[in-house]
Each structure stands twice: as structure tokens, then as C-alpha cells.
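Morning run. Coffee first, then this:
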Amino acid sequence: MTTTKHDIAEQMSERLAIEPKVATKATETILSVISDALVEGEYWELRNFGVFKTKQRAPRLGRNIHTGEEIPVPSYRDVTFKPGKEMLRRVAQAPKIAKPKPRKQSTSDANL
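And here it is:
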């Protein structure tokens, strides 16, 4: 399942007993503050959760997968996330989630 900003705001609203509009504004503000710090080249550490930071990637030669032609890729900044110890521990102890494999749709199923 994918979690969206709306889902986060909804959970904040329920857990903190605040209005959904306030929770939405708080969620957007937190994400904006983190983004602004990363744009400025700073890192953002949330204890026991993880660290967001940027990494400068070197220029390199890439390849067009359709033609095989080499293409220069300029250097760029990338955002990285390193999970904290508490996050890793909680995820490691979580029960395994069995995801059903998506069923391939056969031509007979498509006609139904």
C-alpha cells in the first residue's frame, strides 16, 4: 500500500485530535521544511527514524536502451535516505507481509 500526504495528515488528525485542515497544513509544512533544507545542501536528521541528505553525483556516460548509443549524463544532486537504528529494528521485527502475485490477464479473461 502506498501512503500519501493525505493519509499522513488523516492519521495525524486522528492521533492528535486536531482538525484535518490543521493536520494537512502541518504535514505540508514539515515536508516543505525538509525540502528547503535539502535544497540548501543541509541534511535533515530525525532521531531513530533516519537521515535525509543530498549527494552530488559525478558526470558519466549513460546508454540509450533503445539504440545503444552512449549519452553524456551531467552531474546532479540526488536525495538519499539512511534509516535509523530504531527504524531498522522495528522493520526487522515486523511480521512478514505476504503479497499475492498479480494475476496475468489471459485473452479469455479480457473478453468476459
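Residues 20-39 form the longest helix (20 residues). Good start to the day.
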